[in-house]
Every structure is written in structure tokens, then in C-alpha cells.
Amino acid sequence: GGDHTITYPILQAVAQKHGPLGLVHVDAHTDTGDTALGEKIYHGTPFRRCVEEGLLDCGRVVQVGVRGSSYDPDPYKYGQDQVRKQMGDKPVYISFDIDGLDPAYAPGTGTPEIAGLTPAQALEIIRGCKGLNVVGCDLVEVAPMYDVSGNTALLGANLLFEMLCILPGVKTV
């Protein structure tokens, strides 16, 4: 639950322990905006703030599922300017915004964007992180009141379960 403003203080705490983190960020939006309505901290700015504070190892940041409208004329420039390398064995955080999935599967979110990922693709991304030094993870933007079927909450719960299963030291077989 919550939006990506919860990830910012979490990353501050995790980076304090582990140093700059790699990040696997699944979202329809980059969340690297500078301001909204004059505010520097809102759900569309946390990863820019994290970069500015040195919380992220920008060579190990990957964004998946980005699409949709933006308040910026070139919303991808900031991310494209950051160097992307393989994650290696250094600490990695996974932040998954449910709006990274297509609203046909997860309509219960405040910012739905068409042409998103399928649940199978979401599982592939999370399961593909097995073996990385994952030190934390979150799932944000689940808004059950926008989905009378309950599918978004069910999908969110399953994605969190999958994230727990790929944490280092967790035996799944």
C-alpha cells in the first residue's frame, strides 16, 4: 500500500546500513520528477531525491514498464542519462508499483496506464531477481477501493510473496 513516497525514507534507512543501492524499479512512471505544485517530495519524485542524496548506485538502477503520460516534456531523459550496468553482488532494493501492470489485470491503483505488463511478466521480473543480493523490497499504489473484483489486492499479495521467496537465504524447494 501507500505510494512511492514511502520508498524514499525506506531507502534512506537501508542505504545507511548498506551504502548506495542498486534498484529494480517496476512502474508505469519514472518517479524522477523534480517538483509538483512546488513540492520537492511527492510520489513522482522519490528516485530523483534518492539519486541527489547518493542513496542509489546509479550504475545499478533498472526501470521496467515505464510508459504513459507525464508532466515533463521529456520524462525519460533523466533516467537515460544515468548509467545502467549489471547489478553484481552489491545490495539491491526492489520497488514495484502495481501500476506497472496493465489495468486489465490490476485496475485498483490511482494512476492506471494502458499497455502495461502482464502478471506473468511481473513474476518473470521478480523471479529473475533470485540470486541478487536483495536487501529489501516494497509494493506500492495498491488501492483496493478502485477494484471491486479484488484482483489487484490478490495480485499484489502474490507479488509480495514472490519477493519474499527470492530474498537471499530463503529456500523455496
UniProtKB/TrEMBL annotation:
Any single GO molecular-function term of the entry would be: agmatinase activity
Mind telling me which InterPro entries this protein's record contains?
Answer: Ureohydrolase, Ureohydrolase_dom_sf, Ureohydrolase_Mn_BS
Keywords in alphabetical order, please.
Hydrolase, Metal-binding
Alphabetical GO biological process terms:
putrescine biosynthetic process from arginine, via agmatine
Q: In which domain of life is the source organism classified?
A: Eukaryota
Q: Which family does it belong to?
A: Belongs to the arginase family. Agmatinase subfamily.
Report the protein name in the record: Agmatinase, mitochondrial
